[in-house]
Amino acid sequence: MAISVALAADRMAAAAADRLRSTATSTTTCRSKPRMERLTGGERVPDTLRGGIIALGNFDGFHIGHQAVVGHAVKLAHAQGRPAIVATFDPHPVHYFHPDMPPFRLTTLDQRQQLFKAAGADAMLVLHFDETLANVTADSFVREWLVGQTGTTGVVTGEDFTFGKGREGSVASLKGLGAPLGMACETVGPVSEGGQAVSSSRIRQALQGGDCTTATRLLTRAFAVRSVVQDGDKVGRQLGYPTANLDMGDYLRPRYGIYAVRARLPDGRLLDGVANLGIRPSFDPPKELLEPYFFDFTGDLYGLEIAVELIEFLRGEAKFDDMELLKAQMARDCDAARIVLRR
Question: Which of 151, 292, 302, 325 has its CA 20 to 30 A from that of 202?
Answer without folding.
Answer: 292
